[in-house]
Write a structure and sequence with these properties.
The protein has 9 helices and 5 strands. The chain has about 200 residues and is an alpha/beta fold. The longest helix is centred in the middle third of the chain and has 29 residues.
Length: about 200
């Protein structure tokens, strides 16, 4: 089983690429966002530490952590973001590495893809066989984000400013897929890398 990290800035098209890979290869895909949501559920590893840090008012009526309430609290006090990340990021990594170990032992898939915007920053290079950077021209990314998510230029600017530069993404990756042109062109690059 080959483990491949998929990273890239907001709006680069990681989801569409992974959808294509899921449909065409014997693989499993795990995303850091999905794991982060799962480990915040009642009884899971991050549930109580987040309540201890942020207070019970982040809970909804169903006693689950309400994403909007949690986000409002974090954005009101930036120092909380670092403390929340210190709880969530290591737990996400532990979960993903355990998942990788289990899949390797099962021996049923050819590839395991791990997707997250922060793979390089969180040191996943040591845990994958290859790191792929999905590159997309900035103007294409901006257009996608406005069309698909309704983001304003200001919101896009702030998200992009918080992410690695194109140069740093390339430096931290083994392969680069250019997803700026038509998707057929992207598919050719994927086939070249995966056969």
């Amino acid at each position: 089983m080959k483990t491949i990290g998929i990273t890239g800035g907001v709006g680069c098209g990681k989801s569409r690429i992974l959808e294509y890979i899921r449909e065409n290869y014997n693989c499993k895909i795990i995303t850091a966002d999905d794991v982060a949501n799962e480990i915040k559920e009642p009884g899971e590893v991050c549930y109580q530490p987040l309540i201890d840090l942020l207070g019970k008012d982040i809970l909804g009526k169903d006693k689950r952590i309400d994403k909007k309430k949690m986000a409002a609290k974090i954005f009101a006090d930036e120092s909380l973001l670092l403390r929340v990340n210190d709880i969530i990021h290591p737990a996400v990594k532990d979960y993903i590495l355990e998942y990788k170990k289990t899949e390797k032992e099962k021996g049923k898939i050819d590839y395991l893809f791990i997707e997250a915007a922060l793979l390089i920053e969180c040191g996943y290079n040591a845990h994958v066989d290859e790191m792929w950077y999905i590159y997309t021209k900035e103007e294409v990314r901006r257009e996608r984000l406005k069309r698909s998510r309704g983001y304003s230029d200001e919101k896009i600017d702030s998200i992009m400013a918080a992410q690695l530069s194109e140069e740093d993404f390339k430096k931290g990756s083994d392969k680069c897929i250019d997803n700026s042109a038509g998707f057929e062109n992207t598919v050719k690059q994927i086939r070249k890398l995966l056969g």
